[in-house]
Amino acid sequence: MVRAALLTAPGRPLELVEIDLPAPGPGQVRVKLAAAGVCHSDLSLATGLLRAATPVVLGHEGSGTVTAVGEGVTSVRPGDAVVLNWAPACGSCHLCSLGEPWLCENSAGASTEPYAALADGTGVHPGLGVAAFAEETLVAERALIPLPDGVPLAAAALLGCAVLTGYGAVHNAARVRAGESVVVLGLGGVGLAVLQAARIAGAGPIVAVDVTPEKEELARRHGATDFLLSDERTAKGVRQLTGGHGADHAFECAGRASTIRTAWSATRRGGRTTVVGIGGKEDLVSFSALEVFYFARTLSACVYGNSDPVKDVPVLAEHVRAGRLDLESLITDRITLDEIPAAFDRMAAGRGGRSLVVF
Ligand code: APR
Ligand code: ZN
Ligand code: ZN
Fold first, then answer.
1. Is 186 touching ligand 1 by the criterion CB < 6 Å?
2. pLDDT tens, 287-320?
3. Start and end of every Enoyl reductase (ER) domain (predicted)?
4. Ligand 1 test: best mutation among 60, 211, 215, most atoms within 8 Å of CB?
5. Can you point out the beta strands (E) in the chain?
6. Would the CB of 212 count as within 6 Å of ligand 1?
7. DSSP for 27-88, written as a single string
8. Model confidence pTM above 0.95
């Protein structure tokens, strides 16, 4: 039996339960978690903003050690350190064959099959195919990324979502170049990772925007050169900081229509907005037909930072080893499995950076 934080239905508090996790079947791998980050998408799944089959073990940003492998598994062995990948690509669908594996149509995260059971036999679903809010998990072999040397195992959990997403948004999706100006709206784990990635790209100025003033110090530590509070004057403030033009790039990391709109308005004529946050179905953004034409801006979204985790995690690891990417300062709270609800509360209140469950 394995201890896990279970969501029985959207809107219910997480419950600590014991789950019965089977031995790995063909192509499966069992992993003992070292750490799991608490991401806003977990909160959105817990509240019902995003949908998941229940009961479910959430958590999709994890790292750990392989404990057992099923038949036919060749890429990892017991004892190997791994990062969990919530969007493992099949390699053969239409979008994989176009070279966009982050949009894979057969991603294991889309699986609706139970992976474990409660004591009474009820099937339990793996959140985003990963189920990292548990002492151990069972995943498909392709949902594992071998951890490169020189990255501390627990902090490496963040590579599995926030950092891969934030770094990829800057380097794969927007392709920020040295000297370009950047504005980042929403400074949770993802937005802070975007700031660090913009710093690595040599961008400047790097303007950080959030609703709470306490984020300023955190933002500056992650590479922001300026900080603005989020309100109706934000776009104007960004223009003032960029020679009156607006930023070359905006990154929306709050998951709201209003911040998508502000991000777009804060870019220069011909500028680019990259939406990273996941917002609600009813939350609408509006643009006039004339301004869409006149400003000739680009608005696009990225999934998992348009990353290929197998190729990109080694790149991130190199940045960590060289001291350019600081995973440690993203982690503002180290918690236990029963403290995830408090981490959700901090997140909903816009406090702190990443909370990391350490097992
Ligand atoms: N303007 C600016 N910032 C805002 C606003 C706003 N109107 N509303 C909320 N924020 C800030 C919060 O204060 C918080 O600092 O956005 C930040 C979001 O951070 P987290 O809740 O920690 O979320 P994170 O895990 O970083 O994820 C960000 O990416 O993967 C998606 O679903 C995820 O949509 C979420 C986004
Ligand atoms: Zn996430
Ligand atoms: Zn595919």
1. yes
2. 999 999 999 999 999 999 999 999 999 999 999 9
3. 11-357
4. 211
5. 2-7, 15-19, 28-38, 56-57, 62-69, 81-84, 116-117, 123-126, 136-140, 144-146, 182-185, 206-210, 226-229, 247-252, 267-275, 298-301, 331-335, 354-358
6. yes
7. TEEEEEEEEEEE-HHHHHHHHTSS---SSEE----EEEEEEEE-TT--S--TT-EEEE-SS-
8. yes
